[in-house]
Amino acid sequence: MILVMGIRITPAEVGDYHRVLADHPRYWGKRDLRSLHLLALVQEFGATCLVARAEDGIRGYVFGFVTPEGTGYVHLIATRDDARGSGLGRRLYAAFAEAAERQGARRLKAITSVGNTGSIAFHRSLGFEARIVDDYNGPDQPMAVFHRDLPFDASPSQPTGTRS
Predict the structure, then answer these.
(1) pLDDT above 90 for 161
(2) Where residue 94 sits, what CATH number does that domain have?
(3) pLDDT digits over 21-53, tens only?
């Protein structure tokens, strides 16, 4: 557990998954990404599915897992609308990186749509290399694919909120 400024980052539980879905617009705005929220991730990869808890609820979360090849894959990371710009996204990534390293990860990976300029800028600010991969998500569906080696340094050049 990581405790910073009244926010605890802890493994997600099934109830957290349901709270995140109930508050979906606070994390994702008008984009409906509920279909990407897989309960199986929380149930099967609990050590790398994390939530940032505060007295007023879940401020942010990261759902991911470690592949057999040693890649910590971030499936979703989001901060609540009132937590953006606080550096919480960086802290969530750092907590995920630590959890992934404990499971043998040597690198991190994430993807986003090519039009998600906020996510692309956020990942680059964290030291990820980004490249556009044609047909990554099917025919004519390019994605921005991010990679970076571990260990992870979350030192911000400036705090940034995130919705990937």
Answers:
(1) no
(2) 3.40.630.30
(3) 999 999 999 999 999 999 999 999 999 999 999
Domain that holds residue 65: 2-149
Q: Into how many domains does the chain fold? A: 1
Report the distance separating Cα 156 and Cα 99, nearest Å.
Answer: 20
By CB atoms closer than 10 A (0-12, 13-18, 19+), residue 124 is middle
Q: Which amino acid is at 150?
A: L
Tell whether 47 is covered by a domain. yes
Cβ atoms of 97 and 109 within 8 Å: the answer is: no
pLDDT tens digits, one per residue of 5-21 = 689 999 999 999 999 99
| Residue 160 in domain | no
> Coil, helix or strand for 55?
coil
Q: Could you give the strand order of the β-sheet that contains 57-66, starting from the edge strand earlier in sequence?
A: 2-4, 7-11, 49-54, 57-66, 71-79, 107-113, 143-149, 129-133
Question: What is d(CA 58, CA 90) in angstroms, rounded to the nearest whole number?
Answer: 16
The three-point CA angle 14-87-148 to 5° equals 80
Task: Give the Cα separation of 79 and 39 in Å (integer).
Answer: 19
Cβ atoms of 129 and 147 closer than 8 Å: yes
Residues 6+ apart with CB under 8 A from 64: 41, 45, 48, 49, 72, 73, 74, 75, 76, 77, 96, 100
